[in-house]
Amino acid sequence: MDEKDTGVLVIGDEIPNSVVYEATPALSARAVNRWTPNATTLLGVISNWMTGQEEWLWATVTAGAGTDSIHVEYTWNGDALVYGENYINAVALESQAGITNNLGFGTPCAGNMMTAPIYYLDGVGPAIAWWDSLPDDTTSVPEDSLFGPYPIQASISDFNGVSRVVLYWNDDSVAMDNVNADTFMAEIPEQVVLLGDSVIIDYAISAWDDSYDMNISQTSTRTFYIYHYDPGIEEEQNKPGIPLVYALGNAYPNPSKNHALFRYQLPKTSNVRFDIFDITGRVVKRYDFVGQEPGYYELRWDEQKAAGVYFYRLTAGEYEATKKIVITK
């Protein structure tokens, strides 16, 4: 039997790169009759999905019913795409029989079949169900300057599989190992924190799936502090009586995010000025105390501040001392 070009065509509406990210996307097309002068009106479009939809279904006519150009939407009827490559078939049908149809036959003609590829890709990143939240780490052992390591576990899953997971902390990162089913593990290595200092550790997790490595999930950032307290300062502050000398202690924590604590001591009654200034020398906070009595003191700085390097200076009588603090975000 000879094949004929009926001039009855289905033209699919454009799908960028033929890629969709859902199992039953809205698919639409136009059916047109391009033969003249005997162009007949169109009855509709039948379609099927080559991977699973065995029967042909009528597409829903959304505009232009009974004309030589109609608009239709694909009917899923409970079916769905599978991940990867799929094909959609569609055929337009004439609405009448008779000698006036395109080829002069006495029956309506089926149009040329449109076959279009559609690629169903996973558009959702891996699900990160939980991940460890670390508490602050403190010690007052003077000779112990090594803290950690800090193991981090996370439960991560994805329909297409998880291709890789990365643990980020401060300015470093490490790949997390898949140790059991959906469990991934890595560790933040040992940190050197000198006596009287502190460190802020910011950490987060990113995970990619196996769908062309294009979908990524990212956690929020969590923070924990490492403090290496100086027991000498603690003991000195807990002693009764009057300090023997002026002193300005180290800020805690340093670096700092949301707050900072400053400590100093006075051996005699003094007028005190405590300045905090940025690297340009601009004073951002000033405390003045007149006739402050001998003793041990703390100042807490809880104001919002831009990230950067700051300096704090204690002036008491003829005594003056300056130290540095780093503010992070």
UniProtKB/TrEMBL annotation:
Gene3D superfamilies named in the record: 2.60.40.4070
Organism: candidate division TA06 bacterium DG_78
Protein name (record): Secretion system C-terminal sorting domain-containing protein
One Pfam family from the record: Por_Secre_tail
Highest taxon of the lineage: Bacteria
Boundaries of every Secretion system C-terminal sorting domain copy: 252-327
